[in-house]
């Protein structure tokens, strides 16, 4: 039987490819974005207790009430606005599931979704499975700031959704308050919805405020704002996230969630509820925690010929490797792993059309000192 693929462009993700290559060559893996810090002890303890207390059967489809309550409390503390616990918050199996649900809830076949390149890899396959088209608009190739004129020019009567991501993976760039004002004006009076991927919301540096779409009343009334506990609590493998959206959008979102997974892992929802309520300092100090890592990583990079770009947020450092090599980024990433034992992520897979001559590699600094030191030792020999 001949199978006609629905996703001809999809192969194995660059994160998996690079992690496998790193393992084969015993390279220091600064590629796939996962922290190698321990999960907070209180969280592990709370998870164990939740399982022992019998929270092991299907929880409510939209998420356990104590967790939705905790998310509402945290949102109010961070963004001075409280979402409705019952009608506006849905707990999901990671941000990936939330992104898939949001797209399928509102995007119809033949419609268009604007994405800003370099964009995270799960966006386009979800758009294509909905029978829609991803319209790629490039961010500035050096600063990764949005080009509002280009975004405006990409809008057509078929545009249903605009997807943004701040702090941005892979660049670490963040949207400014001015960007959010421009976005508000751009969408005013249109039927275009917004998906704001804010999984790195608590990892913003240098005293700058995270410009959540939730801070802007006109934006939040047309937005799905998506976050992930994996980033905030050093547990990417636990796959728990959530979406905040106005009641009408949440109702549609839950129709997809209900038949996609129905509900997410029950005991960990209780554990996060306890953690959020009883230890707010964890997410309040996460920016400072990563800022120290960022600063020390950048300092150490001075001993190499890799040139670090600014990192306002997130846990990725882009480096310009043009002083070391003129190889295209996929080849450079492979060469660096095989010949020098350090793995990063090339940027070209995040683009529909990579900027010609771009020589950048993404390195993850959510790593303990020993991992970073080993990587720097190898990189300084380049
Ligand atoms: N969006 C972005 C920008 C990400 O970097 C990631 C994970 N690295 C996700 C979404 C997916 O998050 P999760 O692992 O919770 O599905
Ligand atoms: N989001 C992680 C990253 O950017 C990877 C997640 C995955 O492997 N799918 O590195």
Number of domains: 2
Helix content class: 40-55%
CATH fold type of the largest domain: Aspartate Aminotransferase, domain 2
Q: If helices are DSSP runs of H or I spanning 4 or more residues, what is the number of helices?
A: 15
| Ligand names | 4'-deoxy-4'-aminopyridoxal-5'-phosphate, glutamine
SSE order, one letter for each helix or strand: HEHHEHEHEHEHEHEHEHHHHEEHEEEH
How is the largest sheet built, in terms of strand order?
Answer: 2-8-7-6-5-3-4
**CATH architecture type of the largest domain:** 3-Layer(aba) Sandwich
Identify the overall geometry.
globular
State the low-pLDDT regions, or none: none
Tally the beta strands: 13
Distance between the termini: 50 Å
Largest sheet: 7 strands, mixed
Given helix and strand content, the structural type is: alpha/beta
Radius of gyration over all CA atoms, rounded: 21 Å
Mean pLDDT: 98
The CATH class designation of the largest domain is Alpha Beta
Give the full name of the CATH homologous superfamily of the largest domain.
Type I PLP-dependent aspartate aminotransferase-like (Major domain)
